[in-house]
Amino acid sequence: MDTELLKTLVAIVDHGSFQRAAMQTFRTPSAISMQMKRLEEQVGTELFCKQGREQVLTEDGQQLVHYARRILQLQESALQSIKGPQQGVLLNLGCPNDYVANLLVVVMTVMEAMLPNIRFRIRTGTSAELREWMDKGEVDLAIVTRTPDSDEGLTLFQDKGVWVAKKGFDWTTLNPLSLALYEPSCKFHSSAVDGLQKKGTDYQLYCVTANLTLIESLLMAEKAISAIASISVNDELEVIESDLLPALPAVQIAFSRSASAPDWLTVAWIEEVIERVRK
Fold this sequence. Notes:
Layout: H1 3-15, H2 18-24, H3 29-43, E1 48-51, E2 54-57, H4 59-83, E3 90-96, H5 100-114, E4 119-125, H6 127-135, E5 141-146, E6 154-166, E7 177-181, H7 187-199, E8 203-208, H8 212-220, E9 226-229, E10 237-239, E11 250-257, H9 267-278
């Protein structure tokens, strides 16, 4: 079986679509489709089926993805074993703004312990922006937020959204309820707005930004409350537990690897990073 075809199959699954897999591998979507047809011919079964406007994996396709990951990991391990440890490598690492303070430094410390001469170029932005930069080959590896039903990347851990305000601030005095939220692409933004509308709560979007520092400053100035990931809550803020506010969704934090990432950045290496970070 052609491992290049298996790489494309895994890229489609990891990045969610033929379109993104095409950008990641610097091919056209039609070329990706042709590769999958060749792979289907090799295995003698359909790997994708239409579900609405989307192409989704068949049961045979899901099974092949499982084996494809194992085959590619063995290939990566063999190459890494033959080439030996890498020295003086540069990692273009992406991270959402809200994970910089409490997660990024931990990840970088673990990576440095595993590869002492590693150096970093850090890009921060929303998960959507990080995916775009990976598609362009500008980011090798990104920490992204995904929904629990997504197959994108490798799961780091699960988190949840929480409502937060300045410690001791009576947020119920805000009339209308004033919100400082992340960009609309953020799950917490859409869930907060939709939930408040369903409850009939009078609210205003005081500020929408991708900058966690600004959100924290507005909360400390008692201008608003916010909906953020629990990992992002600092010591000056408190989690609001109230039936007046809608529940926020669970999310998964994952590593997403660009298809154009350097050879040394293997799935096995990323999995070891995840194991050490969790400890």
